[in-house]
Structure formats: structure tokens, C-alpha cells
Amino acid sequence: MRHLILCGDTLKLIGQVPLQSIDLLVTSPPYWAKRVYNGEGEIGSEPTPEAYVSRLADFFDALKPYLKPSANVFINVGDTFFGSGAGAWNKYLDENGNVTQVQKDRKEKYFTTKPLQPKIRQNGKLYQNKQLLLIPSRFAIAMQERGWLLRDDIIWQKPNRIPASVTDRFNNTYEHVFHFVLQKKYFFDLNAVKIMGANGRPKNPGDVWSICTQPLGGTHTATFPEKLVEQIILCGSPKGGVVFDPFLGTGTTWIVSERLERNCIGFEINAEYFDFAQKRFAESLEREQ
Length: 289
What we know:
The protein is α/β, with parallel strands linked by helices. About 25% of the residues lie in helices and about 20% in strands.
């Protein structure tokens, strides 16, 4: 297959891609105030959830000219609660308020040892401690207001989700994957992802997908599981088509595209993740031989 895999800023690299050439965009952008990937100014570091949603919608608007009119767009966006997050971190502090060795061992190179959420004054409305911010929903509505057509709000349910220590709410076990298109008629291969029904006949799998997370070694654990990407690529792009991941991360979209005989365009701004993706892709080819 023909792949274009580059290290750098997607909005600077996208000019190398022909206009209206992409069949499927599938990605998981950085979530708001969750991780440090590249330092100040990166997506996810905005001062408010509203600024994050606006910037993310701007980002995908900038990529729209490179999508075929019949293209599909699948975007995985995570949510968060408003607040300092201090309660979740206190158990790792010693009597002097210092981070313990347990905490240091638990955190990765690109995960911080203190909460990342910017300081925002509580207003008794959206900004209240413990408030679920509904960032995925706000993002989906922002995209609709910009002309994107929302076809599915897929619930990615995680059977192996790590138990939370919270006692005053239920543990979150799912994330949203939004399916957008540009026009009312578009490519979609439902037959490629049908499942066997109780009557022995193939049926629509529905919009709740139970797929385990897929941890990897290295510094990046916020990875797409291959099974999730496989489902999306099969229904959202033709064989031999072009699949694009503007936040390539550890290369899952690239690996699955190769296996399913699709061409992949993948951009990753973090050099360490890019190198990891290259190594992981090479190892996947060896396993296939």
C-alpha cells in the first residue's frame, strides 16, 4: 500500500495532500486538560472547555477541503469533570505534601504529577466542582453549527475499564465516537461490519460497541484499540481508499489500514511517538509474514 506518514504539525503538512482525496478521517485528538504531549500551546491546553471546543472545530474545518464529498469522519472525544482534581491526587502525597515514589512510578514521562486543569473561577453554573462538562456533546453541536452532518453518536463501551475510586458517582466506562459526513449521500459499507443475530442472520451492529482498550508499552497509553479502528475503516472507506489520521500517535490507524488494504496518511507532531509508531508498524509487518 502507499502510505504518507510524516512527523510534524498537521495543519502545516496537510498542504502535501491533494484536495478532495481522503475517503475517511478517523482520529482521537488530545482531550482537554488531560495530558501533556508537546508543551505549551498544544490542543488540549486551552484555558476553558469552550476555547478547546472552538479550536478543535476550527482544526477539522481546516481539513475539510481535503476530504472527498463522499467521505466519512469518525472522531473520538473524551469528557472530564470540572474542578482542581486535587482529591484524586492527595492519596499519593506524604505527610509533608510531597509526591510519593508510588506516584512517581505510576506516572509516565508525559503525564504530570499535578492536575492540568486551568484555574477557572466557579460560577455556580457550568463551572462547579464535580460538574461533568459534556465536552463531547459541546464539540458535536459546534460541528453541526459549522455545517457538518452528524450521523452517529457511537458509544465505545470499555469492558476492561480500570475501576475508579470514586464513591459518589458511577464509574465511567464509555467514550463517544462521532460520525460526521459532508453531504446526505456518502460511502458507507454496512455489510462489512454486520454481526450475526440470534436468528442466524447478519444484522446491523448498532451504535454501542463493546471493545476493550489496548495498552501498549512506551510513554503513550492513550491509544486507539485496533478493533475499534478496524470497524471504522471497514464501514467508512473502500478497499484501496485513503484513510487519514491527523493525530497518528502510536500508529494504530496506519497498522490497521495496511492490514485492510487501505492507503494511510498519518501525521504526528511528537517525535518520540512518531518513532514508536514506525517501530510498531515494522513489527506488525513482521507478524503478518
